[in-house]
Specification:
Blueprint: H1 6-16, H2 22-30, E1 32-34, E2 38-43, H3 50-65, E3 71-78, H4 81-87, E4 93-96, E5 102-104, E6 109-114, E7 120-122, H5 132-137, E8 139-142, H6 143-151, E9 155-166, H7 172-181, E10 182-189, E11 197-204, H8 212-223, E12 240-242, E13 253-255, H9 260-269, H10 279-282, H11 299-307, E14 312-316, E15 322-341, E16 347-365, E17 375-378
Parallel strand pairs: 1-12, 2-3, 2-6, 3-4, 6-9
Antiparallel strand pairs: 5-13, 7-8, 9-11, 10-11, 14-15, 15-16, 16-17
Helix pairs in contact: 2-3, 7-8
Length: 379
Amino acid sequence: MALMFSRLARNYIKNGYFPTDEQTLARIIGLLRVEHAQARLLDPCCGEGCALADIEQGLRQQALREHIAADFETLGVELDAQRAWHAKTVLHRVIHADVNDVVVKPRSIGLMFLNPPYGYGVADKANASASASEINHARSERLERTFLRMATPWIAYGGVLVYIIPHYALDDEIRAHLARNYENLRVFMAPEQRFKQCVVTGVRRRSANASKAALDLLMQAQGAPEHTPVLPERWTDQPYRIPAIDPDAAFDFHAVRIDAPQLGAELKRMRANLLWEHLSTHFNHARADCRPPLRDLTPWHLALALAAGQITGRIRSDGGREFLIKGDTFKAKQRTVNLETDAKGDVHETIVMLDRFVPVINAIELTPDHRIGQIVKIA
């Protein structure tokens, strides 16, 4: 099921975007620390990328003060095009896509900063002509729960979750998921209560039975937020340490579908590694004067020249088209069957297999117009 219908996307983006305020971010940074290595940070609904960029900057300053040689990789996913392209300027890698179309390697993220959209998704059976009651009935689960279930497998064991949602969204399923999959769970009310948010922190573990203490802690935050402590301005307990990642290990972070602007940006980023930049190097050959033939070449001679690689290089046709050509030949079998009847009426079948050498010219279109780069095969 897609996260939302395109007809609802615009209103959803406006109403579901709740950026984290600076005061809450500053206090979150205070409870985090990094190890002596590279840390990978992901925000699967990053907005303009400012929140994760601020966290990276804060962690970098902490590392410098503690003389820790730490480096960071900040990743983001954002559905809205304008916000996604802004995030690309402040984070290392950002994908403009629906998070359902994004592939992330399991257990590869050290810090998951998750401030998801608030509210309900829409089930696929909802349609434009449905009544309000029918749409309400077709609602799927809350998006806070959808994003949490999606993000948990991406976090490494020992990785840190920072989960920001309205306190009233801590329903039975979210509480059970958190208590089963995270340890050292803490929950605080955000200092800024414009959106009635709470901040849940925890460390990813292998799934196990949910403890009653963790469930009670989360239940109190949902039903009695006035008895839940506010995220402290100064963190005095043991910090949440973001585990190191192996920078040499294979890592997947890509969209299954990509639009033209993002493809262009990726090609520009990887330009130095593309074949086109080194085309002249790869296809360069020593130029030497060849002796002219004594007579016009027959097709057989042309085939031999093609097979020998003598007919190759860049050519221009009379019409102005340019090609990079490479000649080759392949052997084909020509099968003929002869039937003969002898004096006794017996039929004899004779099969003759003849070898035929077929010349082929493969060419890359170099004409500087819409055809450039096309592959042309001339048999």
